[in-house]
TrEMBL record:
Co-factor binding comment: Binds 1 zinc ion per subunit.
Protein name: Ferric uptake regulation protein
GO biological process, one term: negative regulation of DNA-templated transcription
Family to which the UniProt record says this protein belongs: Belongs to the Fur family.
GO molecular function: DNA-binding transcription factor activity; transcription cis-regulatory region binding; zinc ion binding
Organism lineage: Bacteria, Bacillati, Bacillota, Bacilli, Lactobacillales
Originating organism: Agrilactobacillus composti DSM 18527 = JCM 14202
């Protein structure tokens, strides 16, 4: 519960920092995203859930807000959408993601590694962080693509 609140506050701060106002509709939408962060929701589902709290929200506002959240790197479209339906997920809950520049593959850095990394940061920089990595993407090549590139170079 406390973690959810923290996450909401972080997102709200980021919106403000980027010059966006926190309207009640946006707050309700952020709340929905945070509460359902383990599920990857479609825009329609987000709209329905937000409407339960904020009756006057329209689908257009939902899309616009999702767009804004993606622009400030809080939200992203799910990379795997085999059925062609766009689903959204909070980047924030995921910590660090490794993104292959060649094939677009996304590798989530697991919680164990994140824990090791935060303790390393604490030791090295005397900076306490609670895995609060904010949309950290590391771009590069996945093992498969790196191998393929090597083959080409030969
Ligand atoms: Zn790749």
């Amino acid at each position: 519960m406390k973690k959810e609140q923290q996450l909401k506050t972080t997102i709200q701060k980021q919106l403000k920092k980027s010059g966006f106002k926190m309207t009640p509709q946006r707050a309700a939408l952020v709340d929905v995203l945070v509460r359902h962060q383990d599920q990857h929701l479609t825009a329609e589902k987000i709209f329905m859930l937000t409407k339960e709290v904020s009756r006057d929200i329209g689908l257009a506002t939902v899309y616009r807000t999702l767009e804004i959240l993606m622009n400030i790197q809080v939200l992203k479209k799910n990379a795997i959408n085999t059925d062609g339906i766009v689903r959204y997920e909070l980047i924030h809950s995921r910590g660090i993601q490794l993104i292959c520049k060649n094939c677009g593959r996304v590798i989530d850095v697991d919680q164990n590694f994140m824990q090791r990394l935060t303790s390393m940061i604490a030791a090295e920089y005397h900076f306490q962080s609670n895995h609060d990595f904010n949309a950290t993407n590391i771009e590069g090549l996945c093992s498969e693509c790196a191998e393929k590139m090597q083959d080409v170079a030969k």
